[in-house]
Amino acid sequence: MKLETLQSLFVEELGDLHSAESQLVKALPKMAKAAKHPDLKRAFEEHLTQTKAQLERLDTIFENIGEKNPNKTCKGMKGLIEEGDERAHEKGDESVIDAGLIGAAQRVEHYEIAGYGCARTYAEMLGEQDSANLLQKTLDEEKAADQKLNKLAIQCINVEAAHA
Predict the structure, then answer these.
(1) How far is 155 from 29, CA to CA, in rounded Å?
(2) What is the mean pLDDT of residues 44-68?
(3) What digits encode the pLDDT tens for the residues 139-156?
(4) What's CA 64's distance to the chain center, in Å?
(5) Exposed/middle/buried for 11, CB within 10 Å: 0-12, 13-18, 19+?
(6) Surface-to-core class of residue 136, CB atoms within 10 Å of its CB (0-12 exposed, 13-18 middle, 19+ buried)
(7) Per residue, what are the HEC states of the chain?
(8) Which CATH number fits domain 6-162: 1.20.1260.10, 1.10.3720.10, 1.10.287.3510, 1.10.287.1260?
């Protein structure tokens, strides 16, 4: 697809986000399994449920705007997941590995926050307010997930890792 209009860029961004979320649906159970701290494990499991709902929202947006998902692989998310997978398979102190998993997960959240923020703005510019509202809901969830991870890191996991 050529990027000649904001609409075409919007569709590409939605496709990128769909690919990213689809990859996360596969990656989050692995991260939950690798996490040792029960609160971190639970955070990954809860975010999996949210991620599935976010995918459904993206499908709804495609339907609402009468466009098809371009079905391209999000290379950025692929790389972030590979890095997280490396952390999950490291040997060493469990709390230090958990701290590394939080760092990897926060990089994923920040990537998603950037993508959803752009897509929401494109939707607004194109007069697609229903799409913008759905994208804002997901953006809010991604920001909340990042804050939850940050709180876990500061209040317990990084503290435990510092004493390892």
Answers:
(1) 24
(2) 97
(3) 999 999 999 999 999 999
(4) 22
(5) buried
(6) middle
(7) CCCCCHHHHHHHHHHHHHHHHHHHHHHHHHHHHHCCCHHHHHHHHHHHHHHHHHHHHHHHHHHHHCCCCCCCCCHHHHHHHHHHHHHHCCCCCHHHHHHHHHHHHHHHHHHHHHHHHHHHHHHHHCCCHHHHHHHHHHHHHHHHHHHHHHHHHHHHHHHHHHCC
(8) 1.20.1260.10
Q: What 8-state DSSP symbol labels residue 92?
A: S
Per-residue confidence at 3, pLDDT binned at 50, 70, 90? confident
Q: What stretches of 20-91 adopt beta strand conformation (E)? A: none
Distance between CA atoms of residues 162 and 153, nearest Å: 11
Please return the burial class of 4, using the count of CB atoms within 10 Å of its CB with bins 0-12, 13-18 and 19+: exposed
132, pLDDT greater than 80: yes
Domain regions of the chain by residue span: 6-162
pTM above 0.70, yes or no: yes
